[in-house]
Amino acid sequence: MKITWLGHAGFRIEIAGQVLLVDPWFTGNPVFPEGKRGEAVKGATHILVSHGHGDHSGEAVGLAKELGIPVVGIYDLMSWWGETHGIETVGFNKGGTVKLGDVALTMVSATHSSSISGPDGPVYVGTEAGFMIAGEGHTIYFSGDTDVMADMKVFNDLHQPDIGILCAGGHFTMDMKRAAYAAKTFFDFKTVIPCHYKTFPLLAQSADELVAGLPGVDVKTPEVMEPVEI
């Protein structure tokens, strides 16, 4: 398995024969290196979208058309995109599981907000979510944009994820302290990868507080486009 940070909240996850682009954001992403887009999307099989904000969903429709692959996410948004853009989608909802080849993808709750910019203001299509991504004997919890939730105990009881990809930049999501609290209170992760940080000055620029708050956990802080092999 390879997990490659695409900057901000985006990831390329190579797992069980699938290549998942999770919340990919290239255009306008200040930390994504020029000239690396082709490498980031090569061989992709699916695009996963956690919610509607442009720094998570803005590339989805264009990539789906360019690569000829489906977008996977909450039913309302997927149905709308399918109807308005003619792309292939896989729409489901929280608590549901879909199979992407040999990968089992379960949608779980997050607490945030979700909208897409429209000509007359925000358009709300579905709600925010996270994902459990299971394959190769591992389960990854991709938190999406969220704060700490007591629901996380239920997620762990049902899925036992060993890898956590956690938003941790603060301001819009959990900060490093809150992400560390969530990880040690509700989960038993072997590996944690922070995201949604370092993108802009108002977000955390270092994961040191998360590392310090999770002794005994392998907290990976890779550079953008630097694969983590598990």
Would you summarize the structure shown here?
This protein has one domain (2-222): Metallo-beta-lactamase, Chain A (4-Layer Sandwich), CATH 3.60.15.
> Please, what is the oligomeric state?
single chain
Tell the overall outline.
globular
Order of helices and strands: EEEHEHHEHEEEEEEEHEHEHEE
Write down the Rg: 16 Å
| CATH structural class | Alpha Beta
Polypeptide structure, described:
With 230 residues, the protein is of the alpha/beta class. The chain has one domain: Ribonuclease Z/Hydroxyacylglutathione hydrolase-like (Metallo-beta-lactamase, Chain A, 4-Layer Sandwich), CATH 3.60.15.10. The protein contains 7 helices and 16 strands. The strands form 3 sheets. A 7-stranded mixed beta sheet has the order 6-5-4-3-2-1-16, covered by helices on one side. Strands 7-8-11-12-13-14-15 form a 7-stranded mixed beta sheet, covered by helices on one side. A two-stranded antiparallel ribbon has the order 9-10. The longest helix has 11 residues, at 75-85. The protein is globular, with a radius of gyration of 16 Å. The mean pLDDT is 97.
